[in-house]
Structure formats: C-alpha cells, structure tokens
Specification:
The complex is a heterodimer of chains A (211) and B (168). With 211 residues, chain A is an alpha+beta fold. Chain A contains seven helices and nine strands; from the N terminus they run H-H-H-H-H-E-E-E-E-H-H-E-E-E-E-E. In chain A, helix 1 crosses helix 3. Chain B is mainly α and 168 residues long. The chains are: A alpha+beta (211), B mainly alpha (168). At the A-B interface, helix 1, helix 3, helix 4 and helix 7 of A face helix 1, helix 2, helix 5, helix 6 and helix 7 of B.
Amino acid sequence: MKIDDLKINSYVDGELNEQELKDFEAIMNDDPEIRQKVEDLRKINHDAKEFYADVINDDIPVSIRDLLVEEESILKKIFKLKIGIIPTIGSILAASLGSVLTFNTMQVASIEDNRPEFMLEDQSKNLIVQEIQKITGESDNLIILSGIFEKQITYSVKSKFTNNSNENCLNLEFDNLNYQDLTITEAVICDQDGLEKIVKLSFIKGPIQDI
Amino acid sequence: MGLIKKKLLEMMPKLRRYSYGLTGSVDKGDELLQDSIVKILSMNKDIKHIDNLNAYFYKIISNDWKDKIKKRKVETYDIEEFSNTLSANDLDLNEKIDSKRKNKKIHELINELSENLKSTFLLATIEEKSYKEISEILDIPLGTVMSRLNEARKKLKISISKDGLNEN
C-alpha cells in the first residue's frame, strides 16, 4: 500500500475499509513521519471541532423557530389567550375581538343569497392576517409563507349595520381565505374615523367540508 | 410540510453550525439559514422521494451560500465583532471563547480558506459527513472531495505553524 497525503486524510476521516485500515496501521506503526502527519491532522480537527461545539448548544433564534412551529400551535395560542370563543355549527369557532371595541350590534340591513362578490385586496388581506398575528404573536415571516397574497380571494357583504358607537360596519363572508391551517370564514369591519378596523373574525380549523 | 418542518427542527443545531461555519459569523449564519429554510419550505417538495434528507438540507444551504457570494462580495469576518455579538447574547460563551484564543484563531484561519475548501473541510471535519455524502451535497466527484480536503488541511497546517498555534 502506498501512503500519500490523500490516504492519510482518508484514514483520519474513517474512510478506509477494513483491509486498508489494517495495512495503513501496519505501515504507520513503523513510520514516525506518517504518525506525525496523522497527529497533526487530528489536532487541526480537534481544535476546529472544539470551537464549533459552542454553536450547537446555542438557542435557536426566534425568527427561525417561528418558521418551523407546528401548524397546530396557532390555535393553541388563541385558546391560551382566553378570548371569548363561541361554538356554532359543528366545528365552527368564532373568536371575537370585541374586547377592543364594545360590540353591540344593531343590524339595520341584511342582504341574502345571490350577493355580488368582490376581490379582496392585498391591504385587506394584510389587515386580517395582522389581526391573527396580534393574537398569536406570530412573526411577519409567516405572512409570506402563507401564500395569502398569491391567491385570488373573493368576498361578499353578508350584512351592513351600525354599532353602538355609531360606526358603519360590514359583515363580510370570504371564499377560500386560508391562513396556515385556518379557514377564515367571516369578518366584521367597522369604519372608525375613516380607518377600517376588524372587530370580529370567524374561522374554522382546516378546510371547509362540502355538504 | 409538517414532516419537513419536524426534520428541520431536529437538525437545526447542526444546520445552524454549518451556516455559521460558511458565513463566518453568527448573524450572517442565521440569515443564511433562515433564507434556506424559507426556500426549502416554499419548494413544497415531496420528501418521501428524497433519499437522504440530511444531505438535501446541507445541499440547499451550500447552494444558497454559493448564490449569495456570487451576488455580492462577502465581507471579511471580524473576530472582534464576533466577540462583541457574543457578549451581547451570551456572556458565558463569550468568556469561554475568550479563554480559547487558540480556537478563535483556528476559526479565523478556516474562514480564510477559499469557499470550496472551506465547505468541504466543514462538512468532513465539523459535520462528520462521509466523502460520498460531501460529493452529493456539493455536487463534485469523490476525487475532488479528497483533494480539496487535503489542500484545506495543508493550508491550515501551514497557517497554524506560522502563527505558532501548534506550540500551545
């Protein structure tokens, strides 16, 4: 067996097969120069490993962890916040954000089936996702990953009313509005001094099942 | 998607260490890793068809790093800046590293290697990948893996001798 630098590297990295290993060690035992080279390589490896060992024990940054949190955690976080959760039909949950605004509805008009549909604009999508993130504490990175801006989402106006603060409100119903594992079915948006504010969101976990 | 995230979380410390090794700093390493994770998740690939998921993640990070250094000149790593970053984040670690000036020097020397030599050295020595795996990750022949490793270690040995680190 001819021992060159490549072979010495292979020995140090555990890349020799059983026979090669035997042959290599037999030659090395009689050759102090090879022994020294092996020792030098092992020292370089040891020192480098010792330095990098500290990194592996460091905590994972929150920004990276946020990208990988289990999808279920978004619902768990909402439950932990003890927001009023109103179960309706089946698995439908309605999480009221009414703690921000006192929300006593006074419905003045109702629009039934065959409602016209509109495209949901990016600004409105952002408003909805931001409300969810306020509750869950999720980071902005998840907005991009959710793919919410790439999809065309339609909505219709389910009802119009004024609340007890005399603000004009719309109850919107969405078609295929999903964020992570949530399907957002409805939102109530009120006009507060010219600024739109979401006061109620309804969503279910998972996609809507066909009846 | 759930399985990919689970695997990524399992491998996170190692992937983070590799990204740190490539970029030469904690912040840049985390930035690289974050970008690579976004890329992996957005690919939405069926991981059942990937034979070696472990190598696949390393490959994405390696390629992402190659793209980044093509796009912009990589800043030189500053060991003092790294110490300052650590002092803000982790005093114990900072003390530990301060007491290991020799190892800091090793890190500086590794960082001075060319990108090709550095990635091969890190994968073999720090990540303990086999030559076959390195060949897959970096998309290079087995012989190139061996020659790059040999060259990297030769350069490190010469630099260490010059700095007198081998006397400690």
